[in-house]
## 1
Amino acid sequence: MVFDFLRRGTAQDAPERKASAAAPVVAYHGAGRVAWSPRDTVTLTRTGFAGNPVGFRSVKLIAEAGAALPLVLQDAERRYEEHPVLSLIRRPNPAQGRAELLEALYAQLLLSGDGYLEAVVGDGGLPLELHVLRSERMRVVPGADGWPVAYEYSVGGRKHRFDVSAAPVICHIRNFHPQDDHYGFSPMQAAATAVDVHNAASRWSKALLDNAARPSGAIVYAGADGQGADDGSIRPARERDGKPPSGRAQRRAADAS
């Protein structure tokens, strides 16, 4: 029992080969190019944090360790054990405590290079609540002198503008960026190439396991005048490989017979 395309036949039995003349050009144009993921904050977060266990664990370890450090409030004369600022940091908003707020702030810095802290100011001019804003939703609005005059926060089709020309309510913390005046450099962007390689290797390993750990491939024989290979050519190849045909190949052989 052999495959139909391995049976010996005459030149008249050879099937007609149909292919586009432009196909080799297209294949050559795309061959050898490396496809890297985009370097925007949303993609970096999805591929480097949500889709990569090493990146996820790294960000969590650094953010949690930073949030666990004790905060000290002092001036030139004394250190304060009780102060309205300390009370605000202990309970920055109804949904978060000190550790949750700082962990979110440090994670934003690691993922995007920028951290935005909003202060909700009361009637007396003192902050009543603190909130960490998502970096990918924030846009810096520079003035004529290049310094930020406002921040725009966008969610869907809605925007809110924070004017910082008078009393700023946004604290923008950013990493050093040698090529950008307004936004910080993301550590995840520096690791993006390694993240892409790790994710691609994981997908390849998963596909290999789905195929019962058999590497993909096929023995292709193009004989003279469209003739296939005989049993004398196929048998040494099987003996050299030392592997029986896969389950799919066995089913195709059964169907061909």
## 2
Amino acid sequence: HARVAAGWAADTGQALTQTEACLLLADLAEERDAAHLADDLVRRALVVAGAERVVRPFVTPGAPGQAALARVLPGRGDALSAVLAERVGAPEPAPEPEPLAVPLTDRELSVLAALPSMASNTEIADELFVSVNTVKAHLKSLYRKLDVQTRRAAVARGRSLGLLG
């Protein structure tokens, strides 16, 4: 039994190495605009991996050969391809936005809430009963706390943090 297990481990190790090599070569082919070659290399990787049920090289985040894999998988009917199609086709979960190091003040939240309307600084000042210079100061502080440079970016960041509806 030990001899069989050792042979299986060697086969699996070779399959893993060959699969990873094919995927790396597929990426190189993609970079050289040789999509057909990349597809052939991914097909080869799938054959080698399927024989030993090797999955990891295909599903590791940032794994090579993903563009060709996405093209090749839909046309295949084997078990490994079915498993990979579920994993490769599923979008990666969006990373959670970094929480604010310094919370926004109530006034900054009011200014942020006015930004999606594309109101001018004067219009925001009139709405909040403050001076234009006060709005500018709040915007400067808001941009710094949100780590953004523009109104559009502030609105996007505010939405991602759940500060805007």
## 3
Amino acid sequence: MLERVTAHAVLRYLERVLHEPVQQWLADQPPMRECQKLALCCERAGLPADAVRLSMLTQPVINALNTKRSQKTTLVTENAVYVIDGRKIITVLAIGMRPKKKQKFKAHKSRQLAEV
């Protein structure tokens, strides 16, 4: 079950829910992969990554992960908003933040030629 929580989601949970200074910790670092960022931030926070993942997996979150959905969904809990895509938590938002939705474009109306 822990593998259903992405490294990006854990980083955002540390930053937005636990209020850790993730951006400051990563500011002076060279570019690195998400899993390396996670290891660095968890080390500085003094928390094992799996313990953070486990704290994210409350019963409502587990129930949402176990339902089969092909679309992105959001789950609002008392301390966070979880964005779930398929059967993985892909990011975490703080209460009050809204997930970005893709802009839907309207079909372009065809131009009609005026009769001469």
## 4
Amino acid sequence: EVAAAHADALDVQIRMLRLRRSVLRVVASRGSSPEETKLMHRLTQLSGEERRRLIDDFMDGTFGTVDADPTAVAMVRAATPDLPDDPTGEQVAAWVELAELVGDEDFRARMRQAAVRQAAGRPLDIECDAGEELMEFTRQKVAEARKSGIDPLSNRVAPVIDDLVDRFAEVFARTPDTEFRNWMAQQFEEAHDPRVDRYWRLVWIVNGWQMVPNLIPVYPWLIQALRNDRAA
């Protein structure tokens, strides 16, 4: 029993030393300031239980008191970031950034707002049964364009945007003119927060998951394309 206890204690020390090594490598590669270095050490020296508690607090504080979409909340909870015992420098840096992000009250509010909007069936504030179908059409169109290698800032994007504008105008019973295109761009810009994309990328990095392009939200590409369309 004594030997087993010593072995367990050594396992803990080895994990901490590996983590400290990863932190030092990140500090050395980034030329971090003393303040940033202290933050890295503080956040990475949390125990596994303390790290889980930090994420649980984010989940409960963000979704626990609102009528959010159960599917969206379940997806966030299922993708809980878990820093491995021997993380790479990239994983350490991602965990530190992620820990700061989930503590940002404004970020929590945006995540909460998105989940509530989904629960109400009002993507882009569309209060009709066609809302989800319209969003799915948008996701498919953008996914196809990205798969075809269409740059949102190129001339090749025009037919894609025309199809999307026409479909949106049909749902909203509006004329697909310049005014409506500007309204569409504004709606997507207001609905998109780059920090949400960043959150998912950081989770994938921390967990060592392969990036899956189709899971990356369509908003950044679409916003660029709509801006390019307005500037043309």
